[in-house]
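Tokens in:
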């Protein structure tokens, strides 16, 4: 489980935070704290079993030497294997303080508990060919394996696989989470992510998604004060109905489905408004009580859909763009969205994001660039959902239910988001993403998207 509300920093940011601390206290004291945190977690999971500690040449190896020394002092059966001589003064000092035997990594014999201190934050190149298979074999043979800061072979800032083995049981992040804990291969390779406070303050606006704090409607609340949501219906009305149903279940006081459908399907409390084209929609959106508009789920990509999208973009109302609306915008998204005065939210999955934006880099960097370019809040969906605001704030939700990988769940997220936007929630995107993920967890395995809205009220009740 990823710690909720935890700070996320890049390798460079973590180095800068460490250097600031080292100006106030000795680096060795900080390394002692880090090693002590590793030793505590290793002892907690070892249950007295023999422990093999792997030490690399950098300061990650220094942490490993500290952990081994403290574990041995506490009575554990500890052996150390190193990939080479320490390459930093701090790591050399910690090797001297260990004072015991150190075997070569290539001669290491498996033990039930493994502590990985080979490479931590800052790795940018693949593991050496000789190290990778030996390390993988030791991980595979261990009953429990704990990585110090990051599993060796995982790129810090992108989560790219640089030779990281599968099977790490847990990872102890030191000071703050790194992007690799919540992105890419890290989702499979970090195991259970723990966070140790080692008294290194970090300054960041990037955090993991946390449970929102919501309030029940007050005694003077009415359907309009709770938020009026309009969902635009297109060629596939079922998708729009899913979004509308989600908006209702997520707390919207009044939800209108605007389209050319025959009015069938959906909850009886869902209000219908018939529109034939973009001009009709433009006229309807002059209603001053509308709190949020959703367009894109099942919209279609024909001339009529383009007209509806143009009308929605032209309305001075908070707007959630999903599905076909994103595909229709394509590379012209920034040009269109910069003309808007009202707030905008985009909810692309990876395919839609790629059709809209150019750019390299990790998922956080790409999403931040898209938010800046469009002046919109971007919810870049996936197993590692990244939320980025135009102000540079980032929230990441990792390890949500993998059963969300089914048609229609994105429509439910769009409707859930609209309800939060219409209610005036300043953290609408984070709230919606958390509620959506929690509803999926409550739904259990193999659900269909239609089932998700039914679990949103329970998710909301957990936030009151």
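Residues out:
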């Amino acid at each position: 489980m990823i710690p909720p509300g935890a700070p996320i920093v890049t390798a460079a940011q973590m180095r800068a935070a460490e250097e600031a601390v080292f100006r106030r206290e000795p680096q060795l004291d900080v390394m002692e704290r880090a090693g002590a945190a590793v030793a505590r977690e290793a002892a907690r999971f070892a249950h007295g079993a023999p422990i093999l500690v792997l030490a690399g040449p950098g300061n990650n190896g220094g942490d490993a030497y500290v952990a081994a020394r403290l574990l041995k002092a506490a009575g554990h059966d500890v052996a150390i294997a190193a990939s080479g001589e320490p390459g930093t003064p701090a790591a050399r000092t910690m090797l001297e303080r260990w004072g015991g035997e150190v075997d070569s990594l290539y001669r290491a014999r498996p033990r039930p508990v493994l502590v990985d201190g080979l490479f931590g934050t800052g790795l940018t190149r693949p593991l050496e060919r000789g190290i990778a298979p030996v390390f993988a074999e030791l991980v595979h043979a261990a009953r429990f394996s704990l990585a110090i800061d990051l599993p060796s072979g995982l790129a810090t800032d992108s989560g790219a696989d640089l030779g990281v083995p599968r099977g790490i049981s847990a990872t102890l992040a030191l000071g703050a989470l790194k992007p690799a804990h919540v992105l890419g291969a890290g989702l499979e390779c970090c195991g259970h992510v723990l966070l140790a406070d080692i008294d290194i303050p970090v300054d960041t606006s990037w955090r993991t998604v946390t449970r929102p704090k919501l309030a029940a409607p007050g005694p003077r609340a009415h359907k309009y004060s709770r938020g009026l949501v309009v969902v635009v219906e297109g060629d596939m009305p079922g998708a729009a109905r899913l979004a509308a149903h989600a908006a209702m279940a997520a707390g919207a006081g009044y939800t209108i489905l605007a389209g050319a459908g025959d009015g069938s399907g959906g909850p009886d409390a869902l209000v219908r408004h018939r529109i034939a084209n973009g001009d009709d929609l433009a006229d309807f959106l002059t209603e001053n009580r509308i709190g949020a508009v959703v367009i894109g789920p099942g919209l279609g990509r024909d001339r009529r859909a383009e007209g509806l999208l143009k009308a929605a973009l032209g309305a001075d109302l908070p707007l959630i763009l999903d599905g076909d609306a994103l595909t229709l915008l394509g590379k012209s998204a920034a040009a269109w969205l910069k003309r808007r005065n009202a707030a905008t939210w985009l909810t692309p999955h990876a395919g839609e994001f790629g059709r809209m934006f150019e750019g390299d880099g990790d998922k956080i960097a790409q999403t931040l660039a898209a938010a800046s370019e469009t002046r919109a809040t971007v919810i870049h969906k996936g197993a590692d959902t990244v939320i980025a605001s135009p102000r540079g704030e980032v929230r990441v939700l990792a390890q949500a239910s993998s059963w969300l990988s089914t048609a229609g769940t994105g429509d439910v997220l769009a409707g859930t988001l609209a309800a939060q936007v219409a209610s005036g929630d300043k953290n609408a995107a984070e709230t919606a993403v958390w509620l959506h993920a929690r509803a999926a967890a409550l739904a259990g395995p193999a659900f269909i998207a239609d089932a998700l809205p039914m679990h949103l009220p329970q998710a909301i009740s957990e936030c009151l």
